[in-house]
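chain below, 123 aa
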Amino acid sequence: MLIGSFDIQGIDHREFVPPGQTVNGKFYYEVLKCLREGIGRKCPDKWKKNKWFLHHENAPVHTSLVRQFVNSQNITVIPHPPIHLTCDFFLFPKMKLQLKGLRFDTTGEIHAQNARGYRHTHI
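prediction:
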């Protein structure tokens, strides 16, 4: 499983979920910390002025631990509609274009391709 975040300029952060790992509040909390640090490196002005917004799906993993983190970091969360249209109609087709023609037999191959920065183009 892959957890990804993106903005208008492209993919900001990718987090591969280890096999057998449950995406619970604690795991997602760590993903959000990495995402926040990544935003700080990619967009330091937005990060310093807290001018970025988090739009994540309303999955049950967004427990009080995650809400506490978001609140403590003053991260503005944009409410997610009940139907998951954003990724289905925006991100997934763009990702499919970048991965077209690539085949992976193992997760190791996926990680290796990811390390090479598979065909990064802006979304």
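Confidence is low (pLDDT under 50) at residues 118-123. DSSP finds five helices and four strands in the chain.
thats it, cya
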